[in-house]
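Cross-check.
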Amino acid sequence: MTTPLDLDAIEARANATPESPWTVELDVFDRDTTLEVSVGNKYVDFICRLPTVFKNDLSGEAATNAKASNEWKVGEFIAHAREDVPALCAEVRRLTAENDELMNEAKRLTELLWENDDP
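Predicted model, tokenized:
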């Protein structure tokens, strides 16, 4: 059996982070190419070092290759989490409420069917 989601705790963790928009950026520092997360124009944190050295060129084919990497995809996932997590929590709550309503209606109709069943 799976543990029920604690949507309040999940949403609280998301809401404790800075507001969106979050972005992923490439940066070359001391011949290392890194992937960083920023909120607005403020640097937040280093995500990882990319395997390719760009030699101070963040455009063209080098940037295209970096943006196709798994590291970039992880960075994009992190950057979108601030918006995605609250949206997903809201959708889970909406679907749970809808499911509860449907289950109550199914129960009511089943009881009505049994009441009207002639032996």
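The mean pLDDT is 80. The radius of gyration is 24 Å. Passed to J.P. for a second look.
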